[in-house]
Design goal:
heterodimer, A: alpha+beta, Fumarate Reductase Iron-sulfur Protein, Chain B, domain 2, two-stranded antiparallel sheet, 9 helices, B: mainly alpha, 0% strand, elongated
Chain lengths: 232, 126
């Protein structure tokens, strides 16, 4: 059973082309207690602020497009239950295109920079390459990262140190485990600031796909200390 | 890493305790507490035992009672135990052991609290 509730949402509004600085606007919304944060944002957009910029796609927590910060915590807006008092902000530390929409150019360029496809020594033979089932399952799971950047926004090391972020380390670990890949991924991870990670597991707690980038970093570090990687 | 195929329930994430962040902050604060206490302790010992600092003893009579406060000892013990155990947990992580962030936080916090209570009771003569 759902009940009607009154919600108060404070949204960070900012249009770099018009505004000198970001501002917070408060909206009162009549909603249901089972609404998600995305429902509240949509209601505000439809009834009160037609110029509010936000984005979403799947609405079932699989695409990662709607990630925002709610009361300072990065979440998927389509999954997070609404609260009676909310402060909704775009993800940090990314540049803002407008309101709740972040510019993902840097994210995409980092993914490109890491060359996250198997780097082979010899050309692909054109036929299927069998992978051990356990490893295939692990790889499949690690590849389920949504690239929503919730972990990057929640990582205290990204905020204060030269660290690309947990999502990238997870992808690099995926490649390091991939049997067809021959590139030295530890070196890339170190260049990306892997050693700056605090090991706090914030990324593990916040990941909407239930992955653990922190564990990927731990595995990299262990490999760095004791050896045993592909490139030894 | 869990082998569950579906994402967990993430519907109330913004209300959750952020264990990792809390542990990291407590680790830092406990480190600062330890350094401050050692500093005060060294000063008090110097004032008490080095004749050269005898003047300071008269000038700051609150120094000696300060380090005899029960609550200060309880906080110090909490800080020492928390800092040690959380540090060991981080070291274990560096060696590849996967330790649950939530369980480890509560274990470390409760054990530290028990030490703090015991120290408090000891000073109180219980």
């Amino acid at each position: 059973m759902t009940n009607n509730i009154k919600l108060r949402a404070e949204i960070r509004r900012y249009d770099p082309a018009v505004d000198q600085a970001p501002r917070y606007e408060t909206y009162e919304v009549e909603g249901k207690d089972n609404w998600r944060v995305l429902d509240v944002i949509r209601s505000i957009y439809e009834n009160q602020a037609g110029d509010l910029a936000y984005q979403f796609a799947c609405r079932v927590g699989r695409c990662g497009t709607c990630a925002v910060k709610v009361n300072g915590v990065p979440v998927l807006a389509c999954q997070e239950r609404c609260k009676s008092e909310m402060r909704i902000e775009p993800l940090t530390p990314f540049p803002v295109l407008r309101d709740l929409v972040i510019d993902r150019t840097e994210v995409e360029s980092r993914y490109e920079h890491y060359a996250l496809a198997p780097q082979r020594k010899t050309e692909h033979q054109g036929r299927a390459e069998p992978i051990e089932p356990d490893l295939a399952e692990t790889l499949c799971r690690m590849d389920s990262c949504l690239a929503c950047m919730v972990c990057v926004a929640g990582c205290p090391a990204v905020e204060s140190r030269a660290f690309d972020g947990p999502a990238f380390m997870l992808k690099l670990r995926y490649m390091a485990k991939h049997p067809a890949d021959t590139r030295n991924r530890i070196e890339q991870a170190i260049d990306g600031g892997m050693l700056e990670c605090y090991g706090c597991d914030m990324c593990t707690q916040l990941c909407p796909a239930d992955l653990s980038p922190a564990q990927a970093i731990r595995e990299f570090r262990l490999e760095m200390i004791l050896g045993g990687g592909k490139h030894e | 890493m869990s082998k569950l195929a579906l994402p967990r329930n993430t519907t109330r994430q913004a209300e959750a305790i952020l264990y990792g962040d809390l542990a990291r902050r407590l680790h830092r604060v406990s480190g600062v507490i330890i350094i401050l206490f050692v500093l005060v302790h060294v000063i008090v010992q110097a004032v008490n035992h080095v004749p050269m600092f005898g003047v300071a003893k008269a000038a700051a009579p609150w120094l000696q009672p300060l380090q005899e406060q029960i609550w200060i000892h309880a906080i110090l013990l909490f800080a020492v135990v928390f800092h040690t155990l959380h540090g060991l947990k981080l070291l274990a992580g560096e060696l590849g052991f996967s330790i649950d962030y939530k369980a480890s936080f509560w274990i470390v916090a409760v054990v530290s609290m028990l030490f703090a209570i015991r120290e408090g009771l000891r000073y109180a003569g219980v």
